[in-house]
Amino acid sequence: MNEYRYDNQTVQGFILSAIFWGVVGIVIGLLISIQLWAPAANLAPWLTYGRLRPVHTNGLAFGLGVGAIFGLFYYIVMRLCRRPLVFPRLARLHLWLFNAIIAAAAVSLLAGKTQSLEYAELEWPLDVAIVVIWVMFAVNVFATVIKRKEEQMYVSLWYVLATVVAVAILYVVNNASVPAGLWKSYHAYAGVNSANVQWWYGHNAVGFIFTTPILAMFYYFLPKTTGLPIYSHRLSIVSFWSLIFAYLWTGAHHLVYTPLPDWIQTLAIVFTLFLIAPSWGSVVNGYYTVGADWSKMRTNYLTKFFVLGITFYGLQTVQGPTQALRVVSQLIHFTDWVPGHVHMGTMGWVTMTICASIYYVIPRIHGTEIYSEKIANAHFWLVLVGQLLFSITMWITGIQQGALWKVQNADGSLKYSFMDGLVKNYPYWHTRTLAGIVFAVGMLLFVYNVLKTIQKGKALQASPPSPAPAAA
Ligand code: HEM
Ligand code: HEM
Questions:
Q1: Which of 244, 245, 341, 375 has its CA 20 to 30 Å from the CA of residue 169?
Q2: What is the mean pLDDT of residues 273-292?
Q3: Under DSSP, is residue 177 helix (H, G, I), strand (E, B) or coil?
Q4: To which H or E segment does residue 399 belong?
């Protein structure tokens, strides 16, 4: 007889919230992609591109991404620690506050309230609320890890802890601001210092929201779904520490050719190049894990989500350091190449891994099987095609834009005006909207499949303890 049970209700609450905010973010993504080639689609002041873009980025990074992180981390932490959360009621309160904050954030951005710092747009009252819920989350995670019943710390737990600590530091330092009213504040740093701190934060928002937590999920759910132990636990730990060591010093690669001192840019570029090694440590570990039995790609519908996810992570982490090189940056910076890079990571690596993890968790907490593997397969192919079409189109138009901006006449003046370049983007922007529709249909199939699985399953119950994933 088990003496304790895992609380699945909060986990599911976060998962469903993440899915809801994900759908909102994707619909807005589609709308802003249309607004770029059909300016008449800027229907009202609060529905203009400038206001909707941060709702898209915040909605997906913080609504979908962080919502999934909260839910799946609670799920993982309880199982890897072999005990329920120390403060289950706090987790429930955390869930309600999280949704209230994301809703308030969306409304405030639509109303044009912004600090004008990318991924840190929210004004100070919301920042304070975010710090409060992050502390609630951290207290629960740390207390559960400290009181754990399993002695060994599996690698996912290291990634969980790094995420909790790093996000707290990054958020507090970059959101330090001087209030000038209830909905207006100014960054505590000025000029080049402001830019440096902002991009230290901005890059690490990618690192600690789109990378470390997704790796925590990957390392936990890949062995769980395939039944194959992680190829090398040692490699996973070495990659973890070197990734954490290097990530925090790379932010200035977003500020190449700016007034930021050259040596800071160069140092950031060097750390950025180094980052290929720990990133690929995880990629190789993932491939070798599945390499023990490649037939899982055919027989287990979730394996391909994880393998393609880690493949896009691998491509992303080669492309990223390349972009940081001065010679590449001066061609692609400010062009559509960058959204191409971004969406390979977000639509490929991040969304695929989160969806596969949710496909694993939902049937388990309802004591059932997935509603339809066929629909899950259709979802996989649609998001894959949508993402590839999106990224490849943006890379092509990005290079074209960068190249056009550089062409000079004999007297040194620019040959092409900004408008010449802009007009040439249109066919690519149409294609991006098409790609977005394909991706969105795939995601809607995912939502349908999850809801039908919940409907089909038993009433939500607390689960008995399960063994930790096997590690070599
Ligand atoms: C080794 C890993 C990576 C490195 C070194 C890297 C490097 C870079 C660089 C240099 C830029 C700036 C491009 C420019 O504006 O000129 C950039 C932008 C970006 N990258 Fe990566 N990248 C990496 C992985 C990822 C991953 C896994 C994601 C996940 C989705 C990601 C998401 C982004 C985002 C969102 C931006 C846009 C930031 C902005 O300007 O708003 N990157 N990356
Ligand atoms: C239907 C799918 C999607 C569409 C149509 C879409 C569209 C767009 C568009 C048009 C932009 C602005 C690009 C620009 O500034 O020129 C953008 C930016 C961005 N999107 Fe999406 N998006 C989609 C899915 C996603 C997903 C799933 C995520 C995250 C999980 C995401 C994260 C971002 C981020 C972080 C940026 C900022 C990039 C930057 O600053 O360079 N998007 N998206």
A1: 341
A2: 98
A3: strand
A4: helix 373-406
Q: How far apart are the first and last CA of the chain?
A: 29
- Count of C-beta atoms within a 10 Å radius of residue 237: 15
- HSE, side-chain direction, 13 A CA sphere, residue 153: 15
Q: Render pLDDT for 179-235 as a digit per residue (tens, 0 to 9).
A: 999 999 999 999 999 999 999 999 999 999 999 999 999 999 999 999 999 999 999
Calculate how far, in angstroms, residue 220's C-alpha sits from the geometric centre of ligand 1. 25
* Residue ranges covered by each domain of the chain: 1-152
Per DSSP (E only), the strands in 137-214 are 177-179, 185-187
The CA-atom distances, in angstroms, between 112 and each of 55, 108, 127, 362 are 10, 6, 16, 37
Ligand 2 center to residue 369 CA distance, Å?
33
CA distance 275 to 6: 37
Contact 120, 201 (CB under 8 A): yes
Of 28, 10, 150, give the one whose Cα is nearest residue 87: 10
Greatest CA separation found in the chain? 85
111-164 pLDDT per residue, tens: 999 999 999 999 999 999 999 999 999 999 999 999 999 999 999 999 999 999
Distance 47 CA to ligand 1 centre (A): 27
Mutational test site, ligand 2, from 23, 26, 27, 57, max ligand atoms within 8 Å of CB: 57
